[in-house]
Design brief:
Strand content: 35-45%
CATH topology of the largest domain: Tumour Suppressor Smad4
Number of helices: 4
CATH architecture of the largest domain: Sandwich
Order of helices and strands: HEEEEEEEEEEHEEEHHEE
GO molecular function, one term: ATP binding
Number of domains: 2
CATH class of the largest domain: Mainly Beta
Keywords: ATP-binding, Nucleotide-binding
Pfam families: FHA (PF00498), Pkinase (PF00069)
Helix content: 10-25%
Oligomer: single chain
Protein name: Protein kinase domain-containing protein
Strand order of the largest sheet: 2-1-10-9-6-7
Family: Belongs to the protein kinase superfamily. CAMK Ser/Thr protein kinase family. CHEK2 subfamily.
Radius of gyration: 21 Å
Length: 246
């Protein structure tokens, strides 16, 4: 799969994704390529992308890319940089005037909007977007869940929506990006294959160690340590949801 990903990137001059940018009061759109290790900053203080909208902060937000290894496509993120009005991803507000927000991992089809000046219509309370980005990224899922795993994911889909975006994999576990339905926040879902352990001599010991590790993570509370959210155990799978750190 790594070779397939590399060939796809070369065909598109090395870019890993694209942003289609539309600005208020402009009919045409602009295509912005994103390359490995890209860092695209937007703000009124940026001479290249200067804006004069009152809702646009001097150092507003940025897009950046992280590549974990050669076997997984790069991940593209957006985050707010202590702006006044924040940004929105698929309508969900992201922003904190007191701190730079954690990065939000982007998926193909995501829409990022930047609030502009408030509407002059007294009946409209929403900000009018001054910029709208459509995120585009060709992505082929590296892993397909087994029929049993898919049924289990469907069972708890009301609480967590596990995407097909793989973040990592090991001998007995795979890590996916997931969305907590109630809060819309992104979490990391680690799916461990219990069935595969049964054919191992040390399977019972390994499963016990996994559960001990989960119990240990439950007790940890530190801003620099990934935190426990939820765990689901079945005879076939052990799924753990953890908050993500970017």
């Amino acid at each position: 799969m790594a070779q397939a990903f590399e060939s796809m990137s070369c065909e598109r001059d090395g870019r890993v994704a694209e942003l289609e940018l539309g600005r208020r009061c402009q009919e045409h759109t602009e295509t912005i390529p994103i390359y490995p290790e890209s860092l695209l900053k937007y703000g009124r203080g940026d001479r290249i992308r200067q804006q004069h909208d009152q809702g646009y902060s001097r150092d507003h937000f940025e897009f950046y890319v992280i590549t974990f290894d050669e076997h997984h496509p790069p991940l593209c993120y957006v985050r707010d940089r202590r702006s006044r009005n924040g940004i929105r991803v698929n309508g969900q507000h992201i922003g904190d005037p007191e701190r730079i927000t954690p990065g939000h991992c982007l998926l193909d089809g995501d829409v990022i909007t930047v609030p502009g000046q408030p509407s002059r219509d007294v009946n409209v309370s929403e900000f009018i977007p001054c910029m709208t980005f459509h995120f585009k990224q060709d992505y082929v899922s590296l892993y397909v869940p087994s029929p049993i795993q898919q049924r289990e994911m469907d069972f708890f889909a009301g609480r967590f929506n596990v995407t097909d975006r793989a973040l990592g994999n090991g001998a007995h576990a795979r890590v996916f990006l997931a969305i907590e339905v109630a809060t819309k926040r992104q979490v990391v879902c680690k799916i461990m294959n219990v069935d595969r352990l049964r054919v191992r001599v040390d399977g019972a010991t390994t499963l016990r160690r996994w559960k001990q590790e989960i119990d240990m993570v439950k007790q940890l509370h530190h801003p620099n340590i990934i935190s426990y959210v939820h765990a689901i155990y079945s005879p076939h799978t052990l799924s753990v949801e953890l908050s993500s750190i970017k």
